[in-house]
TrEMBL record:
<protein>
    <recommendedName>
        <fullName>ATP-binding cassette sub-family B member 6</fullName>
        <ecNumber>7.6.2.5</ecNumber>
    </recommendedName>
</protein>
<feature type="transmembrane region" description="Helical">
    <location>
        <begin position="70"/>
        <end position="90"/>
    </location>
</feature>
<keyword id="KW-1278">Translocase</keyword>
<dbReference type="GO" id="GO:0032585">
    <property type="term" value="C:multivesicular body membrane"/>
</dbReference>
<feature type="transmembrane region" description="Helical">
    <location>
        <begin position="26"/>
        <end position="49"/>
    </location>
</feature>
<feature type="domain" description="ABC transmembrane type-1">
    <location>
        <begin position="258"/>
        <end position="548"/>
    </location>
</feature>
<keyword id="KW-0812">Transmembrane</keyword>
<dbReference type="GO" id="GO:0005576">
    <property type="term" value="C:extracellular region"/>
</dbReference>
<feature type="transmembrane region" description="Helical">
    <location>
        <begin position="96"/>
        <end position="116"/>
    </location>
</feature>
<keyword id="KW-1133">Transmembrane helix</keyword>
<dbReference type="GO" id="GO:0005886">
    <property type="term" value="C:plasma membrane"/>
</dbReference>
<keyword id="KW-0067">ATP-binding</keyword>
<dbReference type="InterPro" id="IPR039421">
    <property type="entry name" value="Type_1_exporter"/>
</dbReference>
<keyword id="KW-0333">Golgi apparatus</keyword>
<dbReference type="GO" id="GO:0031901">
    <property type="term" value="C:early endosome membrane"/>
</dbReference>
<dbReference type="InterPro" id="IPR017871">
    <property type="entry name" value="ABC_transporter-like_CS"/>
</dbReference>
<dbReference type="GO" id="GO:0005765">
    <property type="term" value="C:lysosomal membrane"/>
</dbReference>
Amino acid sequence: MLIQSYCEVNTSFSHTWLDGGLSPCFYFTLVPTILLSISFLLGTLHCVFYQKFGTVMEPKFIPRSRLYGFQLALTVLLLLQFLAGMVWQAVGAGELPGYVVLYGCFSTLGWAWALALLRVERRRVLLMDRTRGHSAVLLVFWAVAFSAENLAFISWSSPHWWWGLENNQQQVQFALWMMRYIGAGLLFFIGLRAPGLPRKPYMLLINEDERDVENGGQSLLRRTEENQSTWQGFRSKVRLLLPYMWPRGNVFLQLLVLFCLGLLGVERTVNVFVPIYYKNIVNDLTSGSSWNTVSVTVGVYVVLKFLQGGGAGSSGFVSNLRSFLWIRVQQFTNRVVQVRLFGHLHALSLRWHLGRKTGDVLRSIDRGTSSINSLLSYIVFSIFPTIADIVISIIYFSTNFNAWFGLIVFICMTVYLTLTIIITEWRTKYRRDMNLQDNAAKSRAVDSLLNFETVKYYNAEVYEVGRFEDAILKYQSSEWKTQASLALLNQTQNVVIGSGLLAGSLLCAYFVTEGKFQVGDFVLFGTYIIQLYTPLNWFGTYYRMIQNSFIDMENMFQLFEEEEEVKDKVNAGNLLFRQGKIEFENVCFSYTNGKEILRDVSFTVLPGQTVALVGPSGSGKSTIIRLLFRFYDVQGGCIRIDGQDISEVKQASLRAHIGVVPQDTVLFNDIIRENIRYGRNTATDQEVEEAAVAADIHDKIMTFPEGYDTQVGERGLKLSGGEKQRVAIARTILKAPQIILLDEATSALDTQTERNIQASLAKICTNRTTVVVAHRLSTIIGADQILVIRDGRIAERGCHEELLLKRGLYTDMWMKQLQAQDSDSSSDTESKDRKSEKLQPPSTSSANHHH
């Protein structure tokens, strides 16, 4: 091996651009020097901090990861590649320039130091570090290494590089470059995920571990990690988005999408030619060209500027046309997402809806659906075009100016994007916390307004306002952190962009003064660089917006991930209703583990019979109704209708044959007519009124000023409890089901109205299978069978007379209700007597007293 000179023959280190490409001597000196500086200087400082302020991680917190092993293997492979490349060139060529030795040695040292830092980060952790993932040193090192390999594309047409593959030497160099390119790229993208490091901050892991010990090993509730990257689960999120990206089944919208993508290509072309024609105008004016030449150039420039608009096409004709055409696609996406989510929420179980927070759900839906539109728009019309503009500009400056301009733009872009990603990932936790506090504040407000009456009952207005103010203060605290971190990010971006603009402008002005460039070239550079940095400046915003959209979508994705507790089986058929025979066979059920509500419940309701369920509160009466309607699936035994297991049939077909009058009736915020018509949407006004007559509410409705067009208010608050219940009975009458379930259907009614409705219900229930949950035993005397439920079991069964003869639990309940009625009657009589005494004249009262 012979080292004759540092650079190759007839070249020197000062020649940065050689035969249409970067000088290999210059490139292979600059790149390893930068990499070694990053890894050695910053890496050494980082290792010192790890040794001084860090601690050894406990092995149980270090995740086992094949990707981490892959990281190590890639790094070692790159190390060997540098050494092998240097040895091969020495043996194969016989002559070895000095820069090749420097490149091999510096690169080997730099990557060896990066490997050491990778192992240090896996074994030790900084206690002061509140985040997770790799250090900025490693991320910047991998980013610069990958970016440096991309610089080789600038020298595509240079004979000094390997792109021609003309001989064995170029083929080997190309293979080594491919190995470096793929290896450095994989290390950077895998490094963003940091597979060998814990997924949470180390201090948080320790604290959770201590809480687990204190709680006896009970697992914590599932929640979103505070510092979890929003790109985690990116593949699953994008997979969920794919159906909305392409409007399937709509050829017109598909053509619109393709046309809008074509307009994107037109915008990119226009962006290239606007600065070029601006340069031509300046050169024509300074060189004294003819008026015809200048006027044509100016005309073309104005047309291009009209198409482009201000700055970087933000308000040009092409951009506005694309935005206008995209409205239909955006509306399609918005509609599909909302309809699908709304349908999914209705498919969830009653258990989920009883535990939901309405305010949280509504905010999640609003932000989630709007974020999907934002995400698609930012990715398709902002991120991809910006990247294309950056790549085009680097190639243009490198080929039409010289390599220094392409290098300046490339370095600025790399540093800018790297810092943007790192800082944005760091500030993610503040944005997520702000969303949580926003949800809490809105949920607090909705909860308080929905319980308006309760607030008034307990004179708690001041307390509610105070709690709402506390929620707002917590939200504003998180909002301040979010805005402050955003200001830091913007300032960092401005420094990077300003530095690149200063360096490029000074260099271009220098070449103009030396006579190498024309004045138009300086104008071209200034115009193009500002045009380039405008989308580059927005790139940080787009990245943040995409990340924010993912954060906003997280809650909505969680709603999509909620499993349906009660599902139709794959081969489920429709319920074949014949007579309406209901059978409960050894049914067991519990809402939560360890607390059984029903235990081995068995009974049969023959077609046309009425069975009443009575018993103390909490014994499981209403649960039987819910299981029969299949709000829940039984955990033991089975329920049959006409011999068919209801868990084997479709829920819709089952519920089509069942009508329910619940204990707590909730109405829609609509007119009375529509609330009754909800029982059968196709019913006529006459049928609605006939149902109201049967439910003994028609006359009451007619006393209202607006009659059947009276608004009932939210949840029916404008009606009394009895009126709401009669509307619910009218709904069920209108539905005309074959099976009727009455859950305390007359509990909110006065005695006279109850008797009227009992008569109406008796007519409706004739020849229909009926299950009644009753608190007043007087209302179910005529039932064919009465089941007394106690502690989830059937304690007694029989008709009214049979149960009284048994002198058991039913008899005790009957006697207590009789005594209560007698007590109420005597109290009513005494109160009437007192009222009549108060109404007598004083003299008469006095005379009677003396007599």
